[in-house]
Specification:
Structural class: alpha/beta
Strand order of the largest sheet: 3-2-4-7-1-8-12-11-9-10
Strand content: 15-25%
Largest sheet: 10 strands, mixed
Number of strands: 12
Shape: globular
Helix content: 25-40%
Radius of gyration: 19 Å
Order of helices and strands: EHEHEHEHHHHEEEHEHHHEHHEHHEE
Length: 398
């Protein structure tokens, strides 16, 4: 198969909903235009456009892409819950690796409502929700309370992890403290204030043990990536821009997600582990080769679960890993230098592409004060309940 490279990335600042008087097509134009400018190409050179979003109407992808040009190219509307952005990126890679296209623009955006994210149901009817089976597992083990459903299912996963492995509330808060500290250096982050572990623990409880500062917010924003073939890189002299997609895999739920009756499995650790394994096998690279990681910390506990799924530590040891400083500057890896979803924000359709943008900037050495020194290999992890997990390995083109 042909190799695929990211040669241009762009994103808007992620913002609290209703902060700015803009529409999703404005966001998409800003992020997509920035990605094209970064690559030094025009929209007329783009041959396909997968567009990800969750909360807009059908063919919103066309309305967004039309702001960049009216060239008649195929536009695909993608919705895969919180993994939507990385799904659009995966489609772009497949078009290029399969030899179908030489230049594809992956675009993701979201314009969200204020307040907590619901459970993915229609009108609150969890019987008809795509995630009804997931919440049914949770309810059987822990009941169903009045707190936001996504916070409940991840909060209950945190409780299970604490009971099973001795993980502490301080260790959970350490994840959020790290990511809030990182976001202070990211001008695109929704929140840029740093907090101590003590301040995070003292914040309002959303669903025990998770406090508000351990939960990703709803956000408005967009992100984009230009994915091209090696031929396109050579013909357009983009060697200095190119970052290779060394491997990428998507997995969905298997029986392992549900059979144990555990929220740890329901929220996706088995999916993430399987996707990571496929990526390591395909790329010939392991977690020991990775310098920088952008992962799906929708809640602080999910960062800990993902450490284990990616093989950064043994099962149950993730609390000690973050507490040791191994996942920040000066440690073995830098995880979420962007500030992660907790601080950077989480516009669902854009999140996976924002991961890619941050890693491209890191691997090019363009991340400014949050630069990870000597970064050559990056790993992105994006997950959505329902479910889908996408893991992507990126490396600087040699």
């Amino acid at each position: 198969m042909a190799k695929a490279y990211i040669v241009g990335v762009g994103m808007t600042k992620f913002e609290k909903p209703e902060t700015r008087d803009w529409q999703y097509w404005d966001m998409a134009e800003e992020a997509g235009g920035a990605a094209l400018a970064d690559a030094g190409i025009s929209y007329e050179q783009v041959q396909q456009v997968p567009v990800g979003y969750c909360f807009q109407a059908s063919t919103a992808g066309q309305r967004a892409a039309y702001r960049l040009g009216l060239t008649g190219v195929p536009v695909y509307n993608v919705n895969n819950n919180c993994a939507t952005g990385s799904t659009a990126l995966m489609m772009a890679r497949q078009f290029v690796e399969g030899g179908i296209s030489d230049c594809v623009l992956a675009l993701g955006f979201e314009k969200m409502a204020r307040g907590a994210l619901g459970g993915g149901s229609d009108g609150g009817d969890f019987k008809t929700s795509p995630v009804a089976r997931h919440y049914g597992i949770m309810a059987a083990a822990h009941g169903f309370e009045m707190s936001p459903p996504t916070a409940q299912i991840f909060g209950n996963a945190a409780r299970e992890h604490m009971e099973r492995y001795g993980t502490t509330e301080v260790q959970l808060a350490a994840v959020a403290a790290k990511n809030h500290q990182h976001s202070a250096n990211n001008p695109n982050a929704q929140f840029r204030d740093a907090y101590t572990v003590e301040e995070i623990l003292a914040a309002k409880t959303i669903h025990r043990p998770l406090t508000k500062l351990q939960c990703s917010p709803t956000s408005d924003g967009a992100a984009a990536a230009v994915v091209v073939s090696e031929r396109f890189v050579v013909e357009h002299g983009l060697h200095d821009k190119a970052v290779e997609i060394a491997a990428q895999a998507m997995t969905t739920d298997t029986g392992e997600s549900f059979d144990s009756g555990s929220c740890i499995d329901v929220v996706g650790r088995p999916m993430s582990r399987a996707a990571a394994r496929q990526v390591y096998e395909t790329s010939g690279l392991g977690i020991e080769d990775v310098d920088v990681v952008e992962l799906h910390d929708c809640f602080s506990v999910n960062e800990l679960l993902t450490y284990e799924a990616l093989g950064m530590c043994e099962e149950g040891a993730s609390g000690k890993l973050v507490e040791s400083g191994a996942t920040t500057y000066g440690g073995r890896w830098v995880v979420n230098p962007s500030g992660g979803l907790i601080s950077k924000g989480h516009p669902l359709g854009a999140t996976g592409l924002a991961h890619a943008a941050e890693l491209v900037w890191q691997l090019r050495g363009e991340a400014g004060p949050r630069q990870v020194r000597g970064a050559r290999v990056g790993l992105a992890h994006n997950i959505g309940l329902g479910g889908a997990a996408v893991v992507t390995m990126l490396r600087r083109r040699s």
